[in-house]
Give the backbone structure.
Amino acid sequence: MSKATRPLSPHLQIYKPQLTSVLSITHRATGVVLTFGALAIALFFIAAASGEEQFNTINGVFDSGFGKLLMFAWSFCFFYHLCNGVRHLFWDAGQGFEIETVYTTGKIVVIAALVLTALLWIVA
């Protein structure tokens, strides 16, 4: 079989996204978002240590509507990544590989992340 006639499978045009693949991609994406959020928090602390003017500037950014939206998204990413990380710890121990359990725990991860995010923003 020549290289030109080989099938180009698997690719996203053929396979329907499943909960497991969406959660896996989301876990990786939230890890990237957490990295940028950690940089933003480091910038906040650097500004706080640099003086009142720098602190007021960065605090104004975080206190704006856009800043609050970013912090809300970052907090959801944190809780999702945390809950899914606990799920992965169980997998590392060899537990929870039955397909029904994988789907159930996946749904629990999403619900727990939403609830924890909401609780954080209600309490804070």
